[in-house]
Amino acid sequence: MLGLRRDAALVIDDGRIVWLGSAVDVPAADERWDCGGACVLPGFVDSHAHLVFAGDRSAEFAARMAGQQYTAGGIATTVTATRAASDEVLRANVARLVAELVRSGSTTFEIKSGYGLTVDDEARSLRIASDFTDETTFLGAHVVPSGIDRADYVDLVTGPMLTACAPHARWADVFCDRGAFDAAESRAVLAAARSAGLVPRVHANQLQHGPGVAVAVEMGAASADHCTHLSDADVDLLAGSDTVATLLPGAEFSTRSPYPDARRLLDAGVTVALATDCNPGTSFTTSMPLCIALAVREMRMTVAEAVRAATAGGASALQRDDVGRLFVGGPADLVVLDAPSYIHLAYRPGVDLIRQVWRGGRLVRDG
Ligand SMILES: [Zn+2]
User: How many whole angstroms from 339 Cα to the centroid of ligand 1?
Assistant: First the structure.
C-alpha cells in the first residue's frame, strides 16, 4: 500500500532525489543528515484549499457549535470582507496560511479564488494565489453574490470573469449543492471553463445528495470534492471514471456533520484523496495530519490508506505524477516525523509530529 522501506537513505541534489535505497549502500555526499530512525514521508499534497480571503468568522463557528446550522450563505460574510481588503492584506493572509500549511508538512497545495465574486476581485485573488502555487483554481461559481440575478451571474462567470481569470488559473471549480449552483448551471460553468483551457473540479454532494458527483464525472472533472452524501450510482460513476473522490473531513468536523464513508469508496475501487478544505467558514485548518487522524477515526480508512490519500491521492486529484511519492528523479519534498512510524499521525492526534519539512531540497522547517 505505501511501499515502506526500513533503514533507508536518500540523496538529494539540486532539489531532486537522485538516489534512494538502503542506508548501508548510500553513496558519498557533501552533507549528511541522520534522521535517527524517524519516519520519512513524501510531503503532503493538499489539493483543496481556499486561502485568499479577509475577515474573521470565529463567532459564526461558535454559534454553529451552539446549535445553528451551516448553509452556503455564510460565504457572503467573507466576500464582503475580501472585497474591502487591500491586495497587501490579502497577500499577507495567504502567506500566513501557506506558512502554516508548509509547517504542517504540505509541500504541494492548491489555492482557490471564490471570495471576490466580481471580475476584478476574482482575478486579483488568482493573481495573488499564483504567487504561492501553480495549482490555482477559479471558483467564481462559489455562490451567487447578492445584488445580481442568478442567470446574469452565470453569464458573468462564464464570460468576462472567466476571460479575466483563465490566465491565472489551472483549474475551474463550481459549488454544485443546495444554496449554490444546480446541475445545469454547474455544467455551463465547467463547459465554458474547459473551452478556456481550464480543467474542471467540483464541490459535490457536501450538504445533501444531489447531482454534483454525476456532473463531475460527466464533465471529466479531476476531482469531486466532499462526496459526503452519495448514492450507489454515484459510487459506481466514480469507480468507472478517472475522477478522484477528495474527502475533506475538516469540514464535517467543523460543522458537526456526518462524515463521508471512505471505506465504501475504497472498496468500490475509487481513488480517494484527503485535503484540508482550509476556509474561514467550515474548515479553518491547514493540518493534513488532523485530516489523516479524522479519516482513520471517523471515515473507516486504515492509517496506510489515509496517508496514501494525503500524499499520492492528493497528487492524483491534481493530476500530478511528480509529487506525493518519493522516487529517483522526483522533487525532494519530504516530511521527517518525530516518530518511528507513519502510524503515529493517526495514533497521536493533535500532537505536532513534524520535525522537518524539505521542499524542493530546501529545509523549510527544522524542529
Ligand atoms: Zn471547498
Answer: 31
Q: How far is the CA of 49 from the centre of ligand 1 (A)?
A: 6
**Which residues surround the ion ligand 1 when the cut-off is CB under 5 Å?**
277
Residue 142 Cα to ligand 1 midpoint, Å, equals 9
The structural domain count of the chain equals 2
Other C-beta atoms closer than 10 Å to the C-beta of 14 total 8
Query: CA nearest 212: which of 248, 241, 173, 240?
Result: 173
Identify whether residues 170 and 57 lie together within a single domain: yes
Whether 2 maps to a domain, the answer reads no
pLDDT tens-place values along the chain, 367 residues long: 889 999 999 999 999 999 999 999 999 999 999 999 999 999 999 999 999 999 999 988 998 899 877 655 678 889 999 999 999 999 999 999 999 999 999 999 999 999 999 999 999 999 999 999 999 999 999 999 999 999 999 999 999 999 999 999 999 999 999 889 999 999 999 999 999 999 999 999 998 899 999 999 999 999 999 999 999 999 999 999 999 999 999 999 999 999 999 999 999 999 999 999 999 999 999 999 999 999 999 999 999 999 999 999 999 999 999 999 999 999 999 999 999 999 999 999 999 999 999 999 999 999 9
User: Which three-class secondary structure state does DSSP give residue 318?
Assistant: coil
Integer angstrom CA distances of residue 276 from 6, 22, 164:
29, 33, 27
Residue 351's H or E segment, with its range, is none
Q: List the domain range (segments joined by +) for residue 281.
A: 44-317
Report how far ligand 1's centroid is from the alpha carbon of 9 (Å).
Answer: 37
Element (H, E) at 157: helix 150-158
